[in-house]
């Protein structure tokens, strides 16, 4: 036979009631943790015993969960009540105007336009804020200058590397040309040395005889 249906009602025996409360409380908290993990839900649980003892669980923060609950509940009520919605937006507009006024006043104080009536401590706080802003500006400025110097250095190195490579190519071409015309240069140098020797002796007949092997026209008696 199957188990009979358990009747849900208050347990009269205090000991049994306390034991059941302890077991059910632990099971409820366990289920809340599993729900938060498995379903990525924000779960908040508050339990008070009959002796006013508090037990709670929150997947993130119980305070933020309660604030979210109150805000959501108020928004839902305002959607159902047009008059409440108007009041809500009026309060929001008032809050935004106050924040804007505070920001404008702070801006005037930081620019030195409205300093009357401020205490020494307040002036010191404004001075500290300005110094922090200046430090941030200097750090940003130094960072930009450093990046520009690095970029300029990179371009200069690329330029000199290009010049160096062109010089290497030019030198290689010269060496190739010298190797290619090495025999011609050697013959020309030998011919030049003979001619200079003959000119120094001032013997033109000897000049003709010495250069005759180098000149085919003279070799065959042509003039």
What is this entry, summarized?
It is built from 7 helices and 2 strands, in the order αββαααααα. It has 223 residues and is mainly alpha-helical. It has a two-stranded antiparallel sheet.
Describe the overall structure.
Residues 1-61 form the MADS-box domain. This is Agamous-like MADS-box protein AGL17 isoform X2. Residues 86-217 form the K-box domain. It is a single chain. By secondary structure, the chain is mainly alpha-helical. The protein has 7 helices and 2 strands; from the N terminus they run αββαααααα. It has helices at 14-39, 62-80, 82-110, 120-180, 182-201, 204-211, 216-219, and strands at 44-48, 54-58. α2 (62-80) packs across α3 and α5 runs antiparallel to α6. The N and C termini lie far apart (145 Å).
The computed structural class is mainly alpha
Fraction of residues in β-strands: under 5%
Strand order in space, largest sheet = 1-2
How does the overall form come out from the CA principal axes? Answer: elongated
Gap between N and C termini: 145 Å
Calculate Rg over CA atoms.
51 Å
What's the assembly state of these chains?
single chain
Unreliable runs, pLDDT <50, ≥5 residues?
A: 201-223
What is the residue-averaged pLDDT?
78
Order of helices and strands: HEEHHHHHH
Number of strands: 2
Fraction of residues in helices? over 70%
H/I helix tally: 7
Sheet of most strands: 2 strands, antiparallel
């Amino acid at each position: 036979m199957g188990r009979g249906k358990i009747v849900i009602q208050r347990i009269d025996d205090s000991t049994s009631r306390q034991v059941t409360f302890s077991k059910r409380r632990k099971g409820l908290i366990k289920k809340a943790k599993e729900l938060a993990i498995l379903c990525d839900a924000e779960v908040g649980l508050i339990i008070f015993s009959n002796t006013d003892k508090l037990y709670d669980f929150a997947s993130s923060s119980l305070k933020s969960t309660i604030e979210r609950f109150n805000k959501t509940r108020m928004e839902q009520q305002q959607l159902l009540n047009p008059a409440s919605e108007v009041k809500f937006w009026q309060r929001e507009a008032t809050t935004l105007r106050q924040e804007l006024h505070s920001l404008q006043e702070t801006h005037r104080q930081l620019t030195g336009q409205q300093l009357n009536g401020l205490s020494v401590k307040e002036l010191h706080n404004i001075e500290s804020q300005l110094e922090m802003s200046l430090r941030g500006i200097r750090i940003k400025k130094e960072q930009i200058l450093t990046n520009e110097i690095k970029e300029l250095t990179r371009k200069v190195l690329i330029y000199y590397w290009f010049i160096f490579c062109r010089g290497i190519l030019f030198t290689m071409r010269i060496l190739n040309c010298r190797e290619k015309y090495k025999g011609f240069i050697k013959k020309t140098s030998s011919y030049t040395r003979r001619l200079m020797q003959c000119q120094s002796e001032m013997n033109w007949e000897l000049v003709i005889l010495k250069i005759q092997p180098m000149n085919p026209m003279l070799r065959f008696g042509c003039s």
